[in-house]
Design a protein that fits this description.
single chain; alpha+beta; Aminopeptidase; 10-stranded mixed β-sheet; 4-stranded antiparallel β-sheet
């Protein structure tokens, strides 16, 4: 017999219930925790949803925001991935009901389409691709596909000769890798200089925002830097540890750091030592313009450490009557 499921529009009074679902779900990560999501909530018109079973127990969530100009719901524009966050005991037919309730609700508020960013499978602790099947059933189509390079640390780090040479160069120069959250401002300066010089853009997060998030999630958001013998920061990486996946949210090196192999030493240290016990180490995407442009230089760098590709997708679902 099909279970009765009810839709509840999220509001701030439900933050504890939301975070409980994320923590106990089969596919949620701390990025979907409201204490992470809401650091920049003023930028978005939130229209997130929650779902309960017939006993009133919360069983699923959908992070989402609404763009009334484009009549489009996104899941979620402030997140790398979104999609339905599900408890393990939510069945396939439950997900069909949840999606149908979602479509009906967003039609009622005037939305014409949903841009849905499913949680990549490597983040799930249990199979959770029911949403993809029912998106297919509703004739959704793929509109963006980011290509990200990922390593399985225990499979041994496969370095090409160039990477080995640069790593050894950094070791011989006396460079040291250390975890140092107090160096967030110094790292941000290196990161900003790199992005400005090569792409004429600034980091998505400000120093204050990064410090706020580190304070909220000190075990999950960790900063590693590479310093020379005079304690100058030559490279660094801010990593997001979701438990199953370690993701390099930011990574950068100064010009001096690039010449001396600072990033090579950092990456090999993180993969072969700090996070060797993790199932996946994800470098992030090497694509632009929704995946239509492949940055082959960036791809080569990540693959030279042994990374191979997974996809971060976005689907468009037309919900016009």
């Amino acid at each position: 017999m099909q279970q009765v499921i009810n839709l509840v529009k999220y509001n701030d009074s439900l933050i504890n219930e939301w975070n409980w679902v994320v923590s106990n779900s089969k596919n949620g990560t701390f990025l979907l925790n409201r204490n992470f999501m809401d650091y920049h909530k003023e930028r978005f018109n939130d229209c997130s949803l929650m779902f309960t079973n017939e006993k009133g127990k919360f069983i699923a969530c959908l992070p989402a925001n609404y763009d009334s100009k484009n009549l489009t719901v996104y899941s979620h524009q402030g997140l790398t991935y979104g999609g339905f966050i599900l408890l393990k005991d939510v069945t396939t037919l439950n997900v069909e009901t949840i999606l149908n309730l979602t479509i009906d609700y967003y039609r009622q508020i005037g939305a014409k389409k949903i841009i849905y960013k499913p949680i990549p499978s490597i983040y799930s602790s249990y199979p959770s691709e029911e949403d993809l099947y029912f998106l297919f059933r509703h004739n959704a189509h793929l509109v963006a596909r980011g290509l990200s390079q990922t390593i399985i640390p225990r499979e041994n780090l496969t370095l090409n000769k160039g990477r080995k040479y640069c790593r050894n160069k950094a070791i011989h120069a006396g460079l040291q890798v250390m975890e140092s959250p107090s160096d967030i401002e110094g790292f941000w300066t290196v990161l900003n200089d790199t992005l400005q010089n090569h792409h004429n853009v600034s980091p998505v997060h400000s120093v204050a925002e990064l410090q706020l998030l580190i304070n909220r999630f000190p075990k999950q958001i960790r900063l590693y830097v590479v310093k020379d013998t005079e304690q100058n920061i030559l490279a660094g990486s801010l990593v997001f540890d979701t438990g199953k996946v370690v993701h390099t949210q930011y990574m950068a090196a100064s010009e001096q750091g690039k010449q001396i192999g600072a990033l090579d030493l950092l990456i090999t240290t993180l993969v072969s030592k700090e996070y060797y016990d993790k199932p996946f180490f994800d470098f992030g995407i090497s694509t632009e313009d929704g995946g239509r442009i492949l940055n082959e230089g960036l791809l080569y760098q990540k693959e030279s450490f042994g990374g191979r590709s997974i996809c971060y997708d976005s689907w468009e679902l037309n919900i016009s009557e």
